[in-house]
């Protein structure tokens, strides 16, 4: 009997020790609506990176809604900057799957299957790792009435959600001819012309009836004189204390928002190296000149940008 009790005691101690070690190696991050680091009092999502405090080639991470319900699970090749690689699954807050797809170095690859919030099948899209993510071919699409309106890459596509709608012809899996759409939240609408999947022209009319023409749907923010020029500014302006100049090296990861006017705001350190260098990097972002803002269908938007800065001895 004593031997049996001793065995149970040892098992409980081992289980407790394992649980504590597991908790210590994981990292929980609070995130706001733009997925920038936040705090426990002001967040929309949380992210749990498993085994963060260990050295590995890849890491499993999970995103959660504020309610605690699972939103997303995937693998990342970098624990500080998310680079999705492998199978990923997204969930609605009610627990139903939203979509599942494979990634290769942060690009969708292969077939993506998606579902409506009620669990009904929505689409089957085929992505090529060599092409841009938005160039996925729509093989099949079902409307909310369970009707397959795009079959084997051909049909008339119409999709409407609480925030927007868009419609147009699908030919051989890609948009063709005239497409139209609306953004209910921003009270804007657009019209686009396609030829064999290539965007020829686009025009957005915003809530003030101002027209924005574009040739690319999604445009990332960028320095006005190019990225090399911006890194040159960082390199020349970065202050490293003399006493640590030949001792410290590593990589700083920081994020900032490029607002609609191109201002760099809300810089935050994701991972720093200390010695006052992180604070200096933050100051350099605040003092930087305006960038070209990011745009969606020709309209400037607030966009999150992640910047790595390498410090060498």
Description:
With 313 residues, the chain is mostly beta strands. 15% of the residues lie in helices and 47% in strands. The protein contains 3 helices and 24 strands. The protein has helices at 2-25, 227-237, 277-287, and strands at residues 27-31, 45-49, 59-65, 70-76, 86-91, 97-104, 107-115, 121-127, 137-142, 148-151, 154-160, 164-171, 174-183, 188-195, 198-205, 211-214, 218-219, 222-223, 250-258, 264-271, 291-292, 294-296, 299-301, 303-311. Strands 1-2-3-4-5-6-7-8-9-10-11-12-13-14-15-16 form a 16-stranded antiparallel sheet. It is globular, with a radius of gyration of 24 Å.
Q: Unreliable stretches, pLDDT < 50, 5 or more residues?
A: 1-20
Work out the helicity level: 10-25%
- Span between termini: 63 Å
Q: Find the structural class using helix and strand composition.
A: mainly beta
Report strand %: over 45%
> How would you state the average pLDDT, rounded?
89
Helix-strand topology string: HEEEEEEEEEEEEEEEEEEHEEHEEEE
Radius of gyration: 24 Å
Q: Name the shape in a single word.
A: globular
Biggest pleated-sheet summary: 16 strands, antiparallel
